[in-house]
Amino acid sequence: MSFMTAEICIESSPPPLATVYFDGGCPICSREIGFYRHQPGADQVSWIDLTTCPDNVLPPGISRQAAMARFHVQTADGIFDGAAGFLTLWRQLPRFRLLGRLLSIPPLPWILEFGYRIFLRIRPTRKLDDCDVCIK
User: Fold this and answer.
1) Predicted TM-score (pTM) of this structure
2) Which residues pair with 46 in a beta bridge?
3) Are 45 and 91 in contact (CB under 8 A)?
4) For residue range 39-82, what is the model confidence (pLDDT) as tens digits?
5) What does the pLDDT look like over 96-114, one tens digit per residue?
6) By the 8 A CB rule, do 73 and 21 touch?
7) Which contacts (CB < 8 Å, 24+ apart) does range 27-35 have?
8) How far apart are CA 70 and CA 41, in angstroms?
9) Residues 76, 109: Cα–Cα separation, whole Å
10) Mind giving me the DSSP string for the chain?
11) Is the peptide bond before 107 cis (omega within 30 degrees of 0)?
């Protein structure tokens, strides 16, 4: 007696290499993320706009307010924010991979973080009027 078995193939997409959490209410941030989303390899990244996403997709252990205050990138290695987040994103995108590696050599990450903190002080702080979590 022989039995026939049916194989069921379920197509599933591989998990993203990285998840980027960004402030969609910041015009500078939105423009920059739009640029990255059109780069080769961006289809391997999940892009989460913190002004519109549900709470269950926030980075683990990080409040929406904290996530919106700084750029965050999550990979299998952890969650990186600020300049470290950008370096992590750049290493995921083929056109930026070499730049990300080169700028990861100390003391460059510290210099980039210093510059990022200056940017945070001058970036547009007027956010979406209907957003109750935006920095106003």
Assistant:
1) 0.81
2) 19
3) no
4) 999 999 999 999 999 999 998 899 998 999 999 999 999 999 99
5) 999 999 999 999 999 999 9
6) yes
7) 27/124, 28/123, 28/124, 29/71, 29/123
8) 23
9) 20
10) ------------PPPPSEEEEE-TT-HHHHHHHHHHHTSTTGGGEEEEETTTS-GGGSPTT--HHHHHHS-EEEETTEEEETHHHHHHHHHHSGGGHHHHHHTTSTTHHHHHHHHHHHHHHHS-----TT-SSS--
11) yes
Could you tell me the two tokens for 113? 């973080």
- Structure-block tokens of residue 5: 């078995």
- Cβ neighbours of residue 104 under 8 Å, at least 6 residues apart? 87, 91
